[in-house]
Amino acid sequence: MRTIGVRFTILYAVVFLLSGVGLLGLTYLLSGGAMTDVAPPPGLDSAQQQILQLQDQLAEVHTQQARQLLAGALLALVVMAVVSLLLGRVLARRVLRPLRTITSATRRISADSLDRRLAVTGPADEVKGLADTIDELLERLEVSFAAQRRFVANASHELRTPLTTMRASLDVAIAKPDPAASTVALADRLRVQLDRVDHLLDGFLVLARAQHGALADSAPVDLGELVGDALRELSSEVEAKRLTVTTDIASGTATQGSPALLARLVGNVVDNAVRHNEIDGWVRISGVAGEEAVVVVESGGPVFDQREVDRLARPFERLGGERIGSSGLGLSIVAAVAAAHGGQLALLALPEGGLRVSVMLPVTA
Q1: Quick count: other Cβ atoms within 10 Å of Cβ 285?
Q2: What confidence tens digit (pLDDT) does each residue in 165-209 have?
Q3: Closest to 102 (Cα-Cα) out of 82, 88, 116
Q4: Farthest CA pair distance, the chain
Q5: What is the CA radius of gyration of the chain?
Q6: Measured distance CA(276)–CA(121) in Å, rounded
Q7: What distance in Å separates the CA atoms of residue 131 and residue 121, rounded to the nearest whole number?
Q8: At what angle do helices 46-107 and 4-30 cross, to 10 degrees?
Q9: What pTM was estimated for this model as a whole?
Q10: Backbone angles phi, psi at 247, to 5 degrees
Q11: Whether the Cβ atoms of residue 360 and residue 335 lie closer than 8 Å to each other
Q12: DSSP H or E segment with residue 287
């Protein structure tokens, strides 16, 4: 596929060649072209015959000069055609340089850096108009994203009040003397649903905070310690499912960031591997520190489609019927927290069955 620079170069060369051919034809016509010999009429005296012979000689000289001029002009046209391609390439690159700058700067802007602007300076031409339009679009996107994050955070906070009220009402109903059995059963079912909603709201808050990119509590964090804390919190479920858990976290596997958010990141990854595992299954956790701090959590299970696995980083995406009970925010929170710390999340469906979750984060300076 030809780029616009190549198309501009070809266009410059074609226009130059057409102009050169037209100028060459016009020059040849104005020079009189190639003169043909004309037979002298009969009955001329010697003086007239000498004059005609002299005219023929001059015409022959003129024809030779015209042919030499045409040959030289054709040679010059070929040379200038090559030169026009080179000059056209240089001019095309120079003309398109502002567009390349705008393209490169726009690619570096992501959802976490919408506050950046191109701020192109120069004359008020089409290129600056394009850059200003992109800046206006980025400003509108920044306002929209900020409003969305504020809404999620504010709505999550506001919904906690009615949840607390409902919990208190259930506690009061159960605390009455000799409550009805149906009331106790209903209260138990409602508590389960309230716990799910509360967990969902907590996920919304963490997701909004991670996507906002504000890491005021940044500090060095040992990822190995976070893995140990997560496993201790899930020890009862590990024992209930009889899981075989192996850990191999290299010393110095640490990063710089928010301890609370990073603890949630590691906790979600480990929780995903434990809760959505099979009975008598296995979990392998490893960590290395090189150019990046990498934590890899592998778990057993059925064979998954990689296309479905790739969607797990989106909110409310789940795998299989056994995962319906989850909020669907676990790995999306992991992806948002990793991105807020300059890292990334990678998901891979293992060929033998199960899932590999890799989190890459910058190492501690």
Answers
A1: 24
A2: 888 888 888 888 888 888 888 888 888 778 777 777 776 777 666
A3: 116
A4: 153
A5: 39
A6: 54
A7: 9
A8: 170
A9: 0.55
A10: -125, 140
A11: no
A12: strand 282-289
